[in-house]
Amino acid sequence: MAHCASLHLSLAPTTSDRAVSFSRAARTRLVRVRCVSSPSKVASSVIERSSSPSKTGKWQWKFDGNSVNVYYEEHSGKSSENVKNILMVPTISDVSTVEEFRTVAKDIVDREGSINFRATIVDWPGLGFSDRPSLNYNADVMENFLIQLINSPDSPVKSSEGDLIICGGGHAATIVVRAAGKGLVKPAVIAAVAPTWAGPLPIVFGRDSSMEARYDLLRGTLRAPAVGWMMYNMLVSNEKSIQSQYKSHVYADPNNVTPTIVQTRYELTKRKGARYVPAAFLTGLLDPVKTHEEFLQLFADLEGKVPVLVVSTAGAPKRSKAEMVALKGAKGVTKFVEVPGALLPQEEYPLAVSEELYRFLYEVYMADR
């Protein structure tokens, strides 16, 4: 349900139309949307398209006595009239980066109409171009970051209370939904792109006590000095492994995996502290839930509270696809669509994703007029 480098470990595997009312502090609106798939004509992939941000910067996340510099970039359009703000959060993985959402952001903000958009893409702490301190990363830590980012007065995310659109991919999408269900963040709209909830090893090998002990051992080894880097280089930080994962399940079309994509992702794995978050991600510590039922309940908790778009993919791996499809018509899901791609459609087929996102936002905000 999430992408990672290929691992060779001695781990034994375990055996329609919808009408939804949304309450807001001072109003109630009715949103009517249709559950549809993308057009039959497959959208062309857009790879390595230049999408320079309007602004870049670092925001300081305070956690456990640490000040972590978090990288963000802002994409703005020409119009300053009736601008809605979108926070885009990359998929959590060993090669997570703001770059995966750049073309989506650029396409959204370049559209001019009665509603305009500004997009801010933020790297997770420990990933992308953010600082990578040796924290004890888990799903709660990542949720804490998201809450602080959205609610802090010095946040780079420009929005008034309850007027922020959040778009996340993979595990990030599920963490957003979890935080919103708890009332810790109050977005106006949520878009979950290829949402996932289980890390690579737990989905394959399960989570019984013997497996959890092995995950703990592997995690400790990956975090250790010297030997940790050696194992990380063998399992994750090498071009052959990255190319293999992208061709096998991250991208739907292996021909879209270019040398440039592989090289830029490989460079991310060489940054100081790069192994700490992947050690947690691979072994399931970043999983927002532990069961399929909990996953569905997260979305159900948002029923009638916030419009939710789920973007599934036609070429996702079997198990990940099953979880995405389970959200079609599920409680709390306002609209379900399918686009080309596998686990990273926002990077492989960004224009298909931006089109569905723009269409949903237009439907939501036009219904409110």
TrEMBL record:
GO terms for cellular component: chloroplast. InterPro entries: AB_hydrolase_fold. It comes from the Eukaryota. This is Alpha/beta-Hydrolases superfamily protein. It comes from Rhynchospora pubera. Transmembrane segments: none annotated.
